[in-house]
Amino acid sequence: MISLTDAQLNAWLISFIWPLTRILGLIMLAPVFAHTSVPRRVKIGLGVFIALIVAPTLPPMPDVGLGSWQGLLILVQQLLIGMAIGFIMRVVFAAVEAAGEIVGLQMGLGFATFFDPQSAGQTLVIAQFFNLLATLLFLAVNAHLLLLGVLAESFKSLPINPQPLAAAGFYTVAGYGSIVFSVGLQLALPLIAILLMTNLALGILTRSAPQLNIFAIGFPITLGVGLIALDITLPYFTPQLEHIFQNGFEATHLVIRTLRP
């Protein structure tokens, strides 16, 4: 008959529960993993599978009871660490969606919206197209595997311990949110320039020929020029998105370092 002591049972539980909490925190917010089309059972099963692989490679856990206040504090810390890593990459996708929003509005497609279950709100078609493009590239370059690698390395650079996390790490996460506007504008800038020149040309045409109905001819011209410009500039999006993904991974390493007590 196998008998287990309370200490052995607590050691086995904390060696699995605490890493699982950090992994589930990342899956909760990380792109692709956190998509609403992925069932919750699949997300939890993936987290348990990764935890079973990672847990045996981790150093010994602190001797803290799982149900104690200190144990609950460690549990919350692991959840915050995983969410911080996943949030950094989610911000990258938010910047791409912001670029799509800007381009869609400039093309006159502000009315072409539909319900996005991921954001639980109305999203422009161009923004959703940019999001799908970024998702496909994210999978094509195996960035989802690199993200899991960053998570596995975080257990070495930021091991599980009862010490509180440094506040500088959370300031770094909050400051990284500024790229939603800067990177989104940089991605949309070529199309904005082309559409701006188109609107200037339409304005000059209206002044030279006032009998033309700008509302009748302006929208199809702007839409057509925007689609042609999008088709021309689309091949140049791939290196830009790869650069943005690389910056996102560098930001995750920075957050992990700054969260270290």
Question: In a nutshell, what does this entry contain?
Answer:
Helices cover 74% and strands 3% of the residues.
Please explain how this structure is put together.
By secondary structure, the protein is mainly α. It has one domain (6-259). 74% of the residues lie in helices and 3% in strands. The chain has helices spanning 6-29, 40-54, 69-107, 125-140, 143-157, 167-176, 179-208, 214-233, 237-259; strands at 113-116, 121-124. Strands 1-2 form a two-stranded antiparallel sheet. A hairpin with a 4-residue loop joins strand 1 and strand 2 (121-124). It is elongated and about 90 Å long. The protein starts with 5 loop residues before the first helix and ends with a helix. The model has no long low-confidence stretch (mean pLDDT 82).
Keywords:
elongated; two-stranded antiparallel sheet; 261 residues; mainly alpha; 9 helices; 74% helix
Write the layout of secondary structure elements.
Layout: H1 6-29, H2 40-54, H3 69-107, E1 113-116, E2 121-124, H4 125-140, H5 143-157, H6 167-176, H7 179-208, H8 214-233, H9 237-259
Antiparallel strand pairs: 1-2
